[in-house]
């Protein structure tokens, strides 16, 4: 599944489910209708707790921004657009540009302070302390105030910027921001009843709950440097293996020496480069980062027949890759090699024993000169 489609699928489904539920709110039982207006706030508490638990400061800010428009009726009697919605949209867009730094620190405090200033500015406008009437002559638009026009322009610009950001990154956070902006527009443009509004806002918050859950899963099961599944993911995969499979261990040759010579940053580049090459063969094998400079490949199904050929192709392709290790005074490119050991499962053999045989074959490849693929006996 393409990355963009995969990142959008569940959040979009949650939003559509909220819209679908909003259509049928009149058919809800009386008790459900009584509780529904409180649901966005209950879900927001869940969202905030999860953000605190996983130290996700940007998620905490997103939760506050999404609830902000619900307080608009208490400070203004103006017509649409809701200026708090504008602040929420701008704030969500700004979150895309910020790094995650948690929230129990000066970064979190500064971000909350900045958003508080935006809210204070909005409330000042609503109370008539500031206005844009002196610019009205510059905008020859009929039946729309300049302030409304500015709000819509800012919201539209934020949505378009977020769409571009999502298209380029297609990660969980940019997807949650994009879906939230779309839902804010829907709430702003459509004449929802209070119960319909609550249903859509609940879906909006659920998108973020889903993001935190999926992000925590990614952190637990995916290696941050290479973006490959981690050893924990391998251990779980080994609990449900078919009768016929093969395991291969891969190790980057002379990796410690490379790190000592060119630095750990270049060493990280090597690991990412090796991972990218192996990912191109993900149709033949599942690839995992085992730890350090070691990787594991799991062959199942028809991929077993061509396991040795695939490993040879990976070995050759990695060796042909060039890595720039230039300094300010000297241009230099180097290549690295890898050694691999491959083991096919024997009848009744435990997965850990297969992995040990693959590891032993790997060290045979090291002893025989490296840059080789050795089949375990």
From TrEMBL:
Its cofactor is Mg(2+). The keyword Heme does not apply. The chain crosses the membrane at residues 35-52, 59-75, 81-98, 107-124, 144-166, 173-194. The keyword Transmembrane applies. Keywords: Membrane, Nucleotidyltransferase, Transferase, Transmembrane, Transmembrane helix. It catalyses: 2 GTP = 3',3'-c-di-GMP + 2 diphosphate. Its EC number is 2.7.7.65. GO terms for biological process: cell adhesion involved in single-species biofilm formation; negative regulation of bacterial-type flagellum-dependent cell motility. GO terms for cellular component: plasma membrane. It holds the Pfam family GGDEF. It comes from the Bacteria. Residues 243-377 form the GGDEF domain. InterPro entries: Diguanylate_Cyclase, GGDEF_dom, Nucleotide_cyclase, Rev_trsase/Diguanyl_cyclase. GO terms for molecular function: diguanylate cyclase activity. PANTHER family: DIGUANYLATE CYCLASE DGCM-RELATED, REGULATORY COMPONENTS OF SENSORY TRANSDUCTION SYSTEM. This is diguanylate cyclase. The lineage of its organism: Bacteria, Pseudomonadati, Pseudomonadota, Gammaproteobacteria, Oceanospirillales. The gene is ycdT_1.
């Amino acid at each position: 599944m393409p990355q963009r489609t995969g990142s959008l699928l569940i959040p979009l489904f949650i939003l559509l489910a909220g819209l679908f539920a909003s259509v049928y709110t009149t058919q809800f039982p009386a008790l459900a209708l009584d509780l529904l207006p409180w649901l966005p706030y209950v879900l927001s508490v869940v969202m905030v707790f999860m953000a605190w638990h996983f130290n996700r400061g940007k998620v905490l800010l997103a939760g506050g921004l999404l609830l902000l428009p619900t307080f608009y009726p208490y400070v203004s009697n103006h017509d649409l657009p809701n200026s708090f919605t504008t602040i929420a949209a701008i704030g969500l867009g700004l979150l895309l540009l910020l790094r995650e730094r948690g929230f129990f620190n000066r970064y979190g405090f500064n971000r909350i302070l900045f958003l508080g200033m935006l809210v204070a500015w909005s409330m000042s406008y609503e109370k008539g302390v500031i206005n844009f009437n002196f610019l009205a002559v510059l905008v020859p638009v009929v039946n729309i105030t300049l302030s409304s026009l500015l709000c819509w322009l800012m919201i539209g610009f934020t949505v378009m910027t977020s769409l571009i950001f999502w298209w380029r990154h297609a990660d969980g956070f940019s997807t949650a921001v994009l879906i939230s902006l779309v839902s804010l527009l829907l709430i702003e443009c459509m004449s929802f009843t209070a119960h319909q509004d609550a249903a859509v806002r609940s879906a909006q918050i659920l998108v973020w709950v889903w993001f935190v859950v999926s992000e925590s899963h990614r952190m637990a099961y995916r290696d941050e440097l290479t973006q490959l599944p981690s050893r924990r993911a391998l251990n779980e995969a080994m609990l449900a293996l078919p009768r016929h499979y093969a395991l291969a261990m891969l190790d980057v040759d002379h990796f410690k020496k490379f790190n000592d010579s060119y630095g750990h940053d270049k060493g990280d580049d090597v690991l990412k480069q090796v991972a990218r090459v192996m990912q191109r063969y993900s149709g033949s094998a599942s690839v995992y980062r085992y730890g350090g400079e070691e990787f594991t490949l799991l062959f199942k199904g028809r991929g077993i027949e061509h396991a040795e050929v695939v490993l040879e192709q990976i070995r050759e392709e990695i060796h042909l890759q060039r890595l720039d290790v230039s300094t300010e005074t000297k241009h230099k490119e180097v290549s690295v090699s890898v050694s691999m050991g491959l083991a096919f499962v024997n009848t009744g053999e435990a997965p850990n024993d297969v992995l040990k045989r693959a590891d032993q074959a790997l060290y045979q490849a090291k002893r025989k000169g490296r840059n080789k693929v050795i089949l375990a006996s």
